[in-house]
Amino acid sequence: MSNIDQSIETRTFEVTQESIDQLINNIKSKNIEFINNQFNDLNPSDAAELLSNIPEKFRVKMLLIDGLQIKPEVIIELNNQLQKDILNKLPSDNIADIVNNLESDNALQVVTNLNEDKKIEVFEKIPTEDKNLIEEVLKAYPEGSAARIMQTEYCAVPKNWSVGETIDYLRETEELPKEFLQIFVVDENNRPLGSVSSSRVLRNPRDKKMQEIMDEAQLLIHGDWEKEQVGYLFEEYNLVSAGVIDKNNKLIGMITADDILTVLKESTEEDAFKLAGVQDEEITDSAVKITKKRFIWLTINLFTAVIASYVIGFFDGNIEKVVALAILMPIVASMGGNAATQTLTVTVRLIATKSLTSENLFKIINKEFFVGFFNGILFSFITGLFVYFWFYDFKLSLLIGVSMIINMACAGFSGIAIPVILDRFKIDPAVASTVFVTTVTDVVGFVSFLGLAGFFLGI
Amino acid sequence: MSNIDQSIETRTFEVTQESIDQLINNIKSKNIEFINNQFNDLNPSDAAELLSNIPEKFRVKMLLIDGLQIKPEVIIELNNQLQKDILNKLPSDNIADIVNNLESDNALQVVTNLNEDKKIEVFEKIPTEDKNLIEEVLKAYPEGSAARIMQTEYCAVPKNWSVGETIDYLRETEELPKEFLQIFVVDENNRPLGSVSSSRVLRNPRDKKMQEIMDEAQLLIHGDWEKEQVGYLFEEYNLVSAGVIDKNNKLIGMITADDILTVLKESTEEDAFKLAGVQDEEITDSAVKITKKRFIWLTINLFTAVIASYVIGFFDGNIEKVVALAILMPIVASMGGNAATQTLTVTVRLIATKSLTSENLFKIINKEFFVGFFNGILFSFITGLFVYFWFYDFKLSLLIGVSMIINMACAGFSGIAIPVILDRFKIDPAVASTVFVTTVTDVVGFVSFLGLAGFFLGI
After folding, report:
1. Residue B278 with chain A: CB contacts under 8 Å
2. What is the reported pLDDT for A12?
3. Alpha-carbon distance B269 to B430, whole Å?
4. B304–A334: do the CB atoms touch at under 8 Å?
């Protein structure tokens, strides 16, 4: 069973400090043979991980050593930012080589990550037809569209072919994709009529017509659809691959589930990161680099906090008279903030999965308001009771109870209304919502608690 | 092109209020023919969406109408909670029918969602060998393991077979999975030696040996691996399918990328939800139900807020003398909270993707501390300056600056240390971290700002 054990071994590679140190020493001594062997022994994904884990200055140094040979697939496995950095440091001959050896979707990704000068240089060094194909897709389809992640290599046969003819064609034709999960059946204008999975071709007799065994209801992706939407459809309809068509319903490429796994992971992860104000970060980014990346978000939050403080400032007279107000006010603001974050997180997912429709929107906004309101009532009792046994002041209990209800109902409402409104204005709700929502719950929390203090406590 | 247009049409079904109302009316009048047609006209995924959107009381009513026929696949497409609810309301005959008509992975999922009594009833009504297979997997592999999401139907051939023999076997054998992406090559003990994709079988001549064209380095999944880990491997290595083996390295099943899409989506989504204190929620859950689900998290947060208030209470004397302290203290706490949330969100993803190793852990903790510290220095200047122009009090500026540095450095450190420690103690860091981290940043924020006030302001 050495085969299996070995295959499992190779795949569960972990980047150790030892392997990094060893590599760094060999980079210092420009031992190109060791470096090439090191990378070529690994699976592309693991090689990319190793490459990501070398400190930046050694990585740059390594890339400039003559004779360096890194498989094109390794570049593809790098995360986007690192891929950009590395590509733009490689000589254009090297990049042209990489582009020529990749499947179309990956070649496209590489070209997209080049800066303008590099792109022009590389285009001069690749076959004209490849260049035209890439330029066409770049021109016709925006970044983030389905066409940008499809591969233009696919397998299609005319509708009148039999299983036997198809198999013979597949055996004899050289320039076909290395692997394909389905074979498209197309009309004379290359418009897909249906598709047959490779396994179904295998299981049918040679004289069976492809048209008879094809699946007509196969989902087709439009090239200009957003890739996140495609991810959603793959997940929803359990697809392993799907054809991509252009505006005239002609087949232009194919997307497979392994590409979608990355899209789906990134888009869900991105939303969570955006909500917390984190940009694309690399595990190898230096503390200074990360500090810079997180600075903007913290600055925006400083504004929010200052607005809240400014609001508190209006009621300094009340606080001077009753210090308990200062002690208790963070409770009201914090409960509102947490209730709003719950609603917000759910809403951002509902928007991302297109589950909010004009049909159900008002019902769900209404519901979130009531969830906030109900929890407000529950916590007004709990907090009121607790404050009574702390300060033995019934009026103070009443005050915190009332402001709790007001703030938590507002939290529920703004937690859904703000991301929905931002989304309508084409602003990414995951990025911008938290700031607005927190401001609302802070301001409403402090105003209701400190403002009503005059009325309830008679100060 | 009617085929394509129709297929796209069918797939972009949206649940409208009209269709729901119409269905409810037909449930009321027990018009079973309409109901059956309505569900059978739809793709299983869309049918499940429609079913999820009917209010609970009508759904229960509908399930009890005689003659109701819902395709087994529809049940599978429901989210887990709803699937449980519905299954346990159906008669056991009906469930046995569903189990018999599903592939093994889905049948297993259905059985897992039955309560004990129902399970025993259903087991009496399905073929013994199916029952044994299900019971075996249930006994040997825990919930959330790879074996629980695999299908036990797969396609394997002996190593000495040729492509021709394989194709003949596939054509002649009835009981094979409907679709398969790869054919495993196994030894006499059913241990996989490698695998050949269906398309590679198609592209090779009949006399070629399977062993010659097989891929030996194919990743094999152990049945007891966590399904999230499997999702991570699929994404990392761009897999569309993989074999599952038992402790003796024998092939026991197969997992395909379409199942993994759901695993990956759910696990990423779950982490984001857990961080915000949201449990599994349904778009059709009532406000009362959601209020209950969110209540616990808010209660925990109330404790956190109370601890912070209690800390403020210690310094009521200082606040009484300088009201500006009450006005400014939320800024220090809020900046710490936000900085910690950034670190926490990143750390939870690092833990989920197993990117933190004993090798890099201390380096990264150190880095996060410095990110907090650096941003603390930047914001101590910004906030100090701004406070000076608000209160014209240099000592107050100095005070907020110093406490800002202390709190943000603590935020960076606790934002990573707390989830890492929780993870070591086998507590899910996504669920529990936020509470602890917020408590730390609140307490440190208030203590440093209010506590140092005596020293800086001489009060």
Report:
1. 342, 345-346
2. 54
3. 11
4. yes
- Average pLDDT over chain B, rounded to an integer: 88
Q: Is the pLDDT of residue B8 over 70?
A: no
> What is the distance between the alpha carbons of residues A221 and B7, in angstroms, rounded to a whole number?
11
Read off the tokens for A225. 């659809």
Residue B190 sits at the chain A interface (C-beta within 8 Å): no
- What SS3 class is residue A209? strand
CATH 1.10.357.20 fits domain A287-457: yes
Interface of B with A in 278-297 (CB under 8 A): 278, 281, 283, 286-288, 290-291, 294-295, 297
Q: What whole-number distance in Å separates Cα of residue B432 and Cα of residue B441? A: 15
Chain B 7-26, residues with CB within 8 Å of chain A CB atoms: 7-8, 10-11, 14-17
Read off the pLDDT band of B143 (50, 70, 90). Answer: confident
The interface predicted TM-score (ipTM) is: 0.74
Count CB pairs under 8 A between chains A and B: 363
Contacts of B350 in chain A (CB under 8 A): 283
- B156-273: CATH topology is CBS-domain (3.10.580)
Q: Where are the domains of chain B?
A: 2-142, 156-273, 287-457
Separation of alpha carbons A37 and B380, rounded Å: 49
User: What is the CATH code for A15-143?
Assistant: 1.25.60.10
What are the angstrom distances between the C-alpha of A81 and each of A297, A402, B24, B350, B351? 20, 50, 51, 17, 21
Instruction: Report helix, strand or coil for A156.
Output: strand
B275-312 confidence digits (pLDDT tens):
888 887 777 788 888 899 899 989 999 998 999 999 99
Least confident piece of the model among A383-392, B27-36, B55-64: B55-64
What is the length of chain A?
459
CB-based contact B450:B318 (threshold 8 Å): yes
CATH class of A156-275: alpha beta
- Residues of A within 8 A of B349 (CB-CB) are 269, 272-273
**Across the interface, which of A238, A287, A382 has its CB nearest the CB of B370?**
A287
The pLDDT tens digits for B349-389 are: 888 877 888 878 999 999 999 999 999 999 999 999 999 99
B346·A179 Cβ contact <8 A: no
Q: Which residues contact A136 (CB under 8 A, 6 or more apart)?
A: none
Query: Are the CB atoms for A166 and A198 separated by under 8 Å?
Result: no
**Per-residue pLDDT, B395:** 95
Task: Nearest by CB to A371, from B191, B290, B306: name it.
Answer: B290
Contact at CB, B298 and A273, closer than 8 angstroms: no
- Which architecture characterizes domain B2-142 according to CATH? Alpha Horseshoe (1.25)
Return the residue of B nearest to A176 by Cα.
Answer: B203
**Using CA atoms, how far apart are residues A53 and A37, in angstroms rounded to an integer?**
17
Residue ranges in chain A modelled with pLDDT below 70: 1-13
Whether residue B344 contacts residue B437, with contact meaning beta carbons closer than 8 Å, is answered with: yes
Angle between the N-to-C axes of helices B257-275 and A323-352, in degrees from 0 to 180, rounded to the nearest 10:
170
Cα separation, B378 vs B372, whole angstroms: 10
Interface residue A342 vs chain B (CB under 8 A): yes
Question: Considering CB atoms only, which of A262, A269, A277 is closest to B338?
Answer: A277
Is the pLDDT at B1 greater than 50? The verdict is: no
pLDDT higher than 50, residue B11: no
Length of chain B: 459
Give CA–CA dist A327/A207, Å, rounded: 84
Contacts of B261 (CB under 8 A, 6+ apart): A231, A234, A235, A238, A257, A260, A261, A264
Task: Flag whether residue A237 sits within 8 Å of chain B, measured between CB atoms.
Answer: yes
Q: Do B3 and A335 touch (CB under 8 A)?
A: no
Spatial CB neighbours of B352, under 8 Å, sequence gap ≥ 6: B228, B267, B268, B271, B430
